[in-house]
Amino acid sequence: xxSHGLSKPFVAxxxxxxxxxxxxxxxxxxxxxxxxxxxxxxxxxxxxxxxxVLLGNPRFLAAxxxxxxxxxxxxxxxxxxxxxxxxxxxxxxxxGRDALLALFTAPLLLPSIVLGLALLLVFxxxxxxSTFHGLVLAHLVVTLPYVVRIVTVxxxxxxxxxxxxxxxxxxxxxxxxxxxxxxxxVPGIVGSAALTFLVSFDExxxxxxxxxxxxxxxxxxxxxxxxxxxxxxxxxxxxxLIAITVALVVLIERSVGxxxxxxx
Amino acid sequence: MAALLVPAxxxxxxxxxxxxxxxxxxxxxxxxxxxxxxxxxxxxxxVGFFTxxxxxxxxxxxxxLAGTVTLTSLLVxxxxxxxxxxxxxxxxGPLAVLTISPLLVSAVVRTYGWIIIxxxxxxxxxxxxxxxxxxxxxxxxxxxxxxxxxxxxxxxxYMALALIAGFGxxxxxxxxxxxxxxxxxxxxxxxxxxxxxLPGIMxxxxLCFVLAISxxxxxxxxxxxxxxxxxxxxxxxxxxNLNWPLAATISMVMLVMFGVTLVAYGRLARxxx
Lengths: 264, 273
Description:
CATH class of chain B: Mainly Alpha
Radius of gyration of chain A: 23 Å
Largest sheet of chain A: none
Number of helices of chain B: 13
Number of domains of chain B: 1
Oligomer: heterodimer
CATH topology of chain A: MetI-like fold
Largest interface: A-B, 81 and 76 residues
Structural class of chain B: mainly alpha
Strand content of chain B: under 5%
Number of domains of chain A: 1
CATH architecture of chain B: Orthogonal Bundle
């Protein structure tokens, strides 16, 4: 029997919906090879002119470096703070562990625009606005929920028998952690590290409140550019960023598997 | 063991709990002209918000926008999720990943894509002019239409994610059983498939509604300063007018709307589940 319930009109509808869903990305890819000075489709001239302009744009380059440094620092600090917290929640025996997990994931429920304003109020008192440390701290709040959540789920799928067996065989608690638990945690750690990096690198609304003339991030710089200018330069930049993202996802898929990395 | 929690707790306390408390406190202060703030304990900002027809209209249009976009996202995502549920093919998994993959691309970039498609010199207007349907470009950016279209596409992957997860829990044999017992495809859909997918629909709608009501990037870029939402108003008041007490008040109103939505969802989910 053919797959049931897949009539031709239904399949045609689904194809049309996929076209809708993927059209902004497809058209951005196409328009990045426009040589026109304005944003129009179809382009009057094709070429790679805007890639050249982009690579000679010092503002985007500086913002790109800032975003890389902020994302890398957020990832390192986020893992350093999030993994121990997740371990304590998953393996500890103290009361209120569910409430703690809820507290650590609560920032996800707060709209970015509200978090951005709240951080601006506090950071402006502490002279943290438009500083590197301030942006890292802001991105930590946004990404820590993912680390704690994913690593906790990962730990809960590790059967305690493995650790008990090692313990029975005379391994010290540290050695059990180092040689048994930690290797089994790797997929969750890699997954949350990649997610933290991507979320921090893409974060724009919270950052918008905290950047300044001294320090800005790439997504904010792109937003400002799209607000004021309409030409294909951002398309060229988007294609490069999407290529980097896809490469990163493929790399993780190859090493641990995306589904496993995201905690099943 | 508890010491392991200290670094993460410090981050959450310093950059989440304390700032939100500060925001609440700020909403009770008094704004003096010129961006100055007078320390006070007053609910004047809230009274002002709920008696000003501009803010009441803004709240109404924000709710209308969120409701519309939630519905359109459901209409786009449901057939896709239903197709993935019924399609018996090794390509099902990769196609499901492709469906939610736009989430990996920033909303700024995807909104920019919509500016290219819907703009006066964009793809849609080129086609319309090409076939001779419109001599003058039809305005689809800097207005409500552009925001609805763009926001629908930006939020559809979230809706699809909830629906695919919901369908994933269903046994594919239930539709076949209904058909075998003589139900027409339409009757099978209305009486069997749709009710069983209701939890996924509700979760998806919750997610989209909440994200739509707080959306900022797409209304700002595709609305061109003509479509106001609570989020764009928070930004305007805090960054351009420097009226932090009012911006904090609007933020608190948004949080209350979130809370009400969550409670309503919880009640509905209990009644259905």
